[in-house]
Structures are given as C-alpha cells and as structure tokens.
C-alpha cells in the first residue's frame, strides 16, 4: 500500500514549489514568443533598410507598366510590320474562324485546296485588292501589303499549304527627297520668292470647286458597298429592305456614320471600316445617305 500511495503523490510538495511552477507557466511562453518575434524581425525585408524604395528600383518596377502603349513614339520612324498571326487575329479571324460570307475556314484543308492551287501571288492579290465578299485588306486599309501577305501565308500554311514568308522591304528613300548634287541648287532657289503662275491659280480654283462639289453617294455605294449590301452577304442589310433597315435608321445618322466609318461587329456579321475601301469620311457618309434613302 505504501508503494502505491507514493506513486500518486504530487511533485509539488511545498508552497514555494507551487509558486515556482505558476511563474514558469507564464514566463516560459513569453520568452518563446519574444524569441520568435526576434527571429522573424531579423530576416531580410524589402522595405526599410533595403534599396527597394530607391529611384532606380521604383523605375524598374514601373517600367513594364509605363510602356504599355503610353510612351511617345516617333511618327516618322519606320513602321513596325506585324507578324502574320497577329494580323490574322486582328483582322481576318472574324470571317475565317467561322467561315462567314463564304470565307474558307482556317485549318480546313478541303476548302483551301482549290485556292492554294491558284498560287501564292493570286491569293495575295485577292487579299490586298479584295474579291467578292472579301474586302480589300480585310477591311483595314492601314495594313501594309507585306502584313497582308504574312496573314495569307499564316492562314494557308495552317490549312495544308507551304507558302513562303515574304521578305521585309528595304527602307526606301523618301519620295521626292533631293539628291545630294541637287541640294545646293534647291537651297538657293528656296530663298527666292515664287510667284504662282496663272495655270497654278486656275488649278487651285478647280480643286477648290471639286472639294465643294456634292459627293455622289450612289457612285460610292456601287464601288465600295454593293459587294455586301446588294446581296446581304455577311449579315449586311440589303439596300431596299425596309424591314431590315428600319431599326438601323432609328439609331440616327450619327450612329450609322460611325459604324460605317469605324467598322462594327454585329450579331449576324461584321462591317469593316469604310467597307474595306479607301473612301473619305464624306464619301462614306454620302453612301450611307444613299442606302438609307433607298431603304425607307
């Protein structure tokens, strides 16, 4: 019995031992917390005590953000030509991904076989100048011919073709730039007053009269718009279809002008900017006026 009794006796036998245990129960955790905080506080941090806030570090972090299209670009610098896949995604995919308006779908080797047989030169010519429902340069007249050819090569090679990537053009001398031997003569003549001849004055008056002349909307329509709006291809409202034009006319001329000039992606089809033509804004507006008048 005495042995069993001794096994269950507490280790704390005096009040002093009890006080010591209570104090230790508070002090030991506090010491552990203090040591842990010191360990964390002594690790290397990006902030005070580092160069993370120096002008160089801040500029390095901001540089990728500041260069997303907001930096100044020299307009006189040579144009940076886009790759074929980039042009395709931006301009061509709207029709060639879905096959809209009879466009051969990219990747459909069967649809491209007959076209590839025409040869690279013919395919590129059709893409640049337009053919049937295909507007010139896909409706983006700002594209360089090489960019269009790159897009054609990309689509064709994705569809079973083996076309060659076009070589970039060498930078040409600016049109009308004077030769070195002529520079002195031109400099001397530039200092002398130039009198406008009667022929030049008459030409200027004639040009001013042309600019003031009313634009023939029907003529612009026949040239740039009829390919789609005469047949209703690619979801274009046919001229004369009053029911189809009624909701569009309700939007007002300002909206119609904007869609025709800048382009518009609708539910049923896509309107390329200016119908893919090089017409001026006034000519496009005149064509819109003609179509609206003929569809009321």
UniProtKB/TrEMBL annotation:
<keyword id="KW-0813">Transport</keyword>
<dbReference type="InterPro" id="IPR002323">
    <property type="entry name" value="Cyt_CIE"/>
</dbReference>
<dbReference type="InterPro" id="IPR036909">
    <property type="entry name" value="Cyt_c-like_dom_sf"/>
</dbReference>
<keyword id="KW-1133">Transmembrane helix</keyword>
<feature type="domain" description="Cytochrome c">
    <location>
        <begin position="79"/>
        <end position="159"/>
    </location>
</feature>
<keyword id="KW-0249">Electron transport</keyword>
<feature type="compositionally biased region" description="Low complexity">
    <location>
        <begin position="168"/>
        <end position="200"/>
    </location>
</feature>
<feature type="domain" description="Cytochrome c">
    <location>
        <begin position="212"/>
        <end position="295"/>
    </location>
</feature>
<dbReference type="Pfam" id="PF13442">
    <property type="entry name" value="Cytochrome_CBB3"/>
</dbReference>
<keyword id="KW-0349">Heme</keyword>
<keyword id="KW-0479">Metal-binding</keyword>
<keyword id="KW-0408">Iron</keyword>
<dbReference type="InterPro" id="IPR009056">
    <property type="entry name" value="Cyt_c-like_dom"/>
</dbReference>
<feature type="region of interest" description="Disordered">
    <location>
        <begin position="162"/>
        <end position="206"/>
    </location>
</feature>
<keyword id="KW-0812">Transmembrane</keyword>
<protein>
    <submittedName>
        <fullName>Cytochrome c</fullName>
    </submittedName>
</protein>
<feature type="transmembrane region" description="Helical">
    <location>
        <begin position="18"/>
        <end position="41"/>
    </location>
</feature>
<keyword id="KW-0472">Membrane</keyword>
């Amino acid at each position: 019995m005495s042995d069993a009794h001794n096994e269950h006796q507490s280790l704390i036998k005096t009040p002093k031992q009890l006080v010591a245990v209570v104090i230790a129960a508070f002090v030991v955790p506090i010491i552990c917390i203090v040591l842990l905080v010191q360990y964390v506080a002594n690790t290397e941090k990006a902030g005070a005590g580092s160069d993370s806030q120096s002008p160089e570090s801040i500029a390095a972090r901001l540089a990728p953000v500041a260069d997303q299209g907001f930096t100044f670009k020299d307009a006189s610098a040579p144009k940076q030509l886009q790759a074929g896949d980039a042009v395709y995604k931006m301009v061509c995919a709207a029709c060639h991904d879905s096959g809209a308006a009879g466009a051969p779908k990219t990747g459909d080797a069967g649809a491209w076989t007959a076209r590839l047989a025409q040869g690279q030169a013919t395919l590129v010519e059709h893409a640049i100048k337009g053919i049937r429902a295909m507007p010139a340069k896909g409706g983006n007249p700002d594209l360089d011919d090489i960019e269009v050819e790159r897009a054609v090569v990309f689509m064709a090679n994705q569809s079973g073709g083996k076309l060659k990537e076009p070589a970039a053009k060498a930078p040409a001398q600016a049109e009308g730039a004077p030769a070195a031997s002529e520079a002195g003569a031109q400099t001397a003549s530039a200092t002398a007053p130039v009198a406008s001849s009667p022929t030049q004055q008459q030409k200027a008056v004639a040009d001013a009269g042309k600019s003031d002349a009313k634009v023939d909307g029907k003529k612009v329509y026949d040239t740039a718009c009829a390919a789609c709006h005469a047949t209703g291809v690619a979801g274009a409202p046919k001229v004369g279809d009053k029911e189809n034009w009624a909701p569009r006319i309700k939007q007002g001329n300002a909206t119609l002008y904007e869609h025709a000039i800048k382009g518009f992606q609708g539910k049923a089809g896509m309107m390329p900017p200016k119908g893919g033509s090089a017409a001026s804004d006034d000519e496009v507006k005149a064509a819109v006026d003609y179509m609206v008048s003929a569809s009321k």
